[in-house]
Design brief:
single chain; mainly alpha; two-stranded parallel ribbon; globular
Length: about 375
């Protein structure tokens, strides 16, 4: 078993900090920031959708010209932002503005074949102390003790994600509807947006009606687009452009996910503070995170500490915690200046593990595969 010493030897502040008191203090300091602002939510979603689809139309009209390509980039970034509201729906569904869940599905979820049931009931497991960083975590792979190719393979897989979704709703949904024995397999392995290939969705979620409605509508939409494209009513070039935009969004999101954590847990359940120290914030003055980690995801460490906060409050909460928490607070260890720092740490850890494997193999060629990785800090 490859184990990560960074996960076993927490930063010094953690040893002196009472975990429950630290969490209570963080909640107490930010309690007034927990209410979602309806105006911000609606404006952000509507503008993201309008700009995203409008820019896609501009790309279609202008093609592979400088104007067209610039519009394609704008479409990717705007629709990426719109998609990431699925994260808010998952954590704050009961507190989001009235009608927001429906509007998000009409504007984003159904047109991009991404109904929220693929994420709801799944992502929250990633936050649970009993599941984070274990085989039961759908969004965690122990990359820090893995190989370069383990990370590199995620990029082409992400690029193909739109095609997986097309197959999921054009073919899999009708098959599961007509052949009941297939439904268990579809539920377990084809109804979740996950990163961990070992994860299996175990039980139907409590929101079965919403699942049924959105899956049915999304499937009908997918078939409608297919029929209209075959009939020549929807240009096939536009469909390919839309799939390309979706593919680029998926790649960006995967890179963001690689930089959301250090992935140094050894597979055992850990506490809130250890989870926090394995998670990343990339706050201002860095500017690019506004593009690659929008809708509050640049404060991913803070989000794991305070998942009840709406995205528009995370910046204020971060500044408040820095002002009020002591200088040796473990929260400060989550701060990184740029994405390159986070990825460099990941690859250093992988290199250290590879050297340790080679050293032990050379010292004892007949030994088993038990290796202890020593990640770089």
């Amino acid at each position: 078993m490859i184990r990560n010493r960074a996960a076993q030897q927490p930063a010094p502040p953690l040893a002196e900090t009472d975990e429950n008191e630290f969490v209570r203090a963080a909640y107490r300091l930010t309690a007034d920031l927990a209410k979602p602002n309806a105006l911000i939510y609606w404006t952000d979603l509507l503008v993201s959708a309008l700009v995203g689809y409008g820019a896609l139309a501009v790309w279609y009209v202008h093609g592979m010209t400088p104007v067209g390509l610039a519009a394609a980039v704008v479409s990717v970034l705007a629709l990426y932002r719109g998609i990431l509201f699925i994260h808010e729906l998952t954590h704050l569904r009961k507190r989001t503005p009235r009608g927001f869940w429906t509007a998000w599905h009409v504007l984003i979820g159904v047109p991009l074949l991404l109904p929220s049931f693929l994420y709801e009931g799944i992502h929250t497991l990633h936050h649970a102390k009993a599941h984070y960083g274990t085989e039961e975590d759908p969004e965690y792979i122990q990359w820090s003790t893995g190989r370069y190719r383990d990370v590199a393979l995620m990029l082409p897989i992400s690029a193909a994600e739109p095609l997986f979704l097309v197959v999921r709703f054009l073919l899999v949904t009708p098959i599961a509807a007509l052949i009941p024995p297939t439904r268990g397999y579809v539920l377990e392995r084809m109804s979740s947006m996950i990163m961990n290939p070992r994860f299996r969705r175990k039980e139907p979620p409590p929101f079965r009606t919403g699942w049924l409605v959105t899956e049915t509508v999304t499937t009908l939409y997918a078939w409608t687009v297919l029929v209209l494209t075959i009939a020549g009513i929807i240009p096939w070039q536009l469909v390919l452009m839309a799939l390309t935009v979706w593919s680029m969004i998926s790649i960006i999101n995967m890179v963001r996910t690689m930089a959301a954590h250090h992935y140094e847990n050894d597979g055992e359940p850990i506490g809130v503070l250890a989870q926090l120290l394995d998670t990343v914030n990339v706050p201002p003055p860095a500017l690019l995170p506004m593009l690659w980690a929008p809708v509050g995801l640049r404060y991913h460490g803070l989000h794991h500490l305070l998942p009840n906060l709406p995205y528009h409050s995370l910046g204020a909460a971060h500044r408040r915690l820095l002002a009020e928490l002591p200088a040796d607070s473990p929260y400060r260890a989550t701060i990184n200046r740029r994405i390159s720092e986070v990825l460099a740490r990941l690859f250093r850890n992988q290199a250290a593990t590879r050297r340790e494997r080679a050293r032990l193999a050379q010292a004892n060629p007949t030994a088993g595969a038990t290796v202890v990785g020593t990640p770089a800090e």
